[in-house]
Amino acid sequence: MPAAEATKQSQGGASSVVYQGATKRYGHSSAPAVDHLDLEVEAGEICVLVGPSGCGKTTSMRMVNRMVELTEGDILIGGESVKKRDAARLRREIGYVIQQVGLFPHRTITQNIATVPQLLGWDKERVRARTAELLALVGLDPELGDRFPVQLSGGQQQRVGVARALAVDPPVMLMDEPFGAIDPINRERLQNEFLRLQAEIRKTVLFVTHDIDEAIKMGDRIAIMKQHGRVEQYATPSEILITPANEFVEDFVGSDRALKRLSLMRVGDISLWRAPNARPGQSTAEVRAELERPDVEVPYALLVDERERPQGWLTKRDLSGDTVPATADAPLGPVLETSDVMRDALADLLQGESMYAPVVDHNGRIAGILSIEIISEFLNSPVAATEEQSAVERPLAPDRASEIAADE
Ligand SMILES: Nc1ncnc2c1ncn2[C@@H]1O[C@H](COP(=O)(O)OP(=O)(O)OP(=O)(O)O)[C@@H](O)[C@H]1O
Ligand SMILES: [Mg+2]
Fold it and tell me: Could you tell me if the CB of 69 is within 6 A of ligand 1?
């Protein structure tokens, strides 16, 4: 194999996955569950399989680690056929995360994460170091290590599931509706955490969902499947939103494509508004003058502390004295970050019943104000409506972008 080809197939602990006419027929059933599936997933990418119930998503995924045996065709991991591998070993080496989490109830969190390393005969010290590292990686307090699964919330259990799947640094991760059973708020958090984690670990991930919004948010590429594992379109989220290949894809993506495109943007990608900022002790006359300027974008003043972190909205009463008070009368409401996905930001605004939300940078410093009006203007703009042109390419997570910059 030429060297360039080899790097493309396996990069820093991630391997490509290539389906070649992969077919699964269960028992004697006449119609195959998956019929001659061809699909190439590049090393380090998240490929989302999305489609209606029973279309063969789980089957396609399980053929990769041979939990389901291929009837016909092949799957190559890092260029090597899964059929040449020992099935039990393959299962251990490939991370697998499912909706039901499937933690062992009578083993502690640490023991759960250590399951596969122990099976592989790692020595005690190596197992201990790895579990500690993984707890930190998925953002769990080390103290939770001694608890049992029932003593954790659903979201925490799901993080343990991810940590366990990552235990042996797998070249491929299979995730079957991993966040399907989690409430919407925690789900959003887990999705964001996983994207941040992925920016660091860059695994090849096959991710199943039947939620198109989740697919758009999580996928580098999305395979839209219909019955028998037939891929109707395999493309990036923006390509799917902008040029759906056919009616099936169009129906599946839904009519509110402009709205869905918000999932491709981050809050920092749009021009934000400015609100007059006020510091405790500042003269209120100055602030009132700013509010009265004809070009004021936000008709309220934002109280910020000495490090420009938003503290609250100042009311008329707050500004009736000579100097700006140390606390604001009106609560701050939702505070967004420049790295938040725009669709989640809109949900936060609507949920908080706020017209305006302060946006902060990663240091918590005010970066601008997002309003419902800005989003609505974007949705009605020719950029969002155009069919030919990509409104935005899916932006990199900021840490991923700086990581790439650091590499160069
Ligand atoms: N163990 C099995 N024995 C027989 N048929 C099966 C088995 N597992 C799945 N099937 C059938 O294969 C087809 C594909 O099932 P699969 O579980 O892969 O679908 P899916 O896309 O994951 O669906 P869902 O979204 O509901 O999880 C279905 O028709 C299903 O009934
Ligand atoms: Mg399934």
Answer: no
Q: Which domain holds residue 63?
A: 3-263
Domains in the chain, number: 2
The CATH number covering residue 276 comes to 3.10.580.10
**Contact status, residue 398 vs residue 405, Cβ threshold 8 Å:** no
Query: In this structure, are residues 283 and 323 in contact, taking their beta carbons and an 8 Å threshold?
Result: yes
Taking a C-beta distance cutoff of 8 angstroms, is the pair 167, 130 a contact?
Answer: yes
Residue that the structure tokens 């390419």 belong to: 393
318-325 own/partner pairs: CB under 8 Å, 24+ apart: 319/284, 319/287, 319/288, 320/284, 321/284, 322/283, 322/284, 322/285, 323/280, 323/281, 323/282, 323/283, 323/284, 324/278, 324/279, 324/280, 324/281, 324/282, 324/283, 324/284, 324/287, 325/280
Q: Whose CA is nearest to atom 4 of ligand 1?
A: 26
Q: Indicate if 125 and 259 belong to the same structural domain.
A: yes
Strands 366-371 and 356-360: antiparallel
Residue 393 C-alpha from the chain's centroid: 16
Asked whether 53 lines ligand 1 (CB < 6 A), one says yes
Minimum-distance ligand to the CA of 228?
Answer: 1
CA distance 374 to 351: 17
Q: What is the reported pTM? A: 0.70
Report the chain (408 residues): mean pLDDT per 10 consecutive residues.
48 86 90 96 96 93 95 96 93 85 88 88 90 88 91 87 87 90 81 86 92 89 95 90 86 74 86 94 94 89 95 93 92 92 86 88 95 81 50 41 44
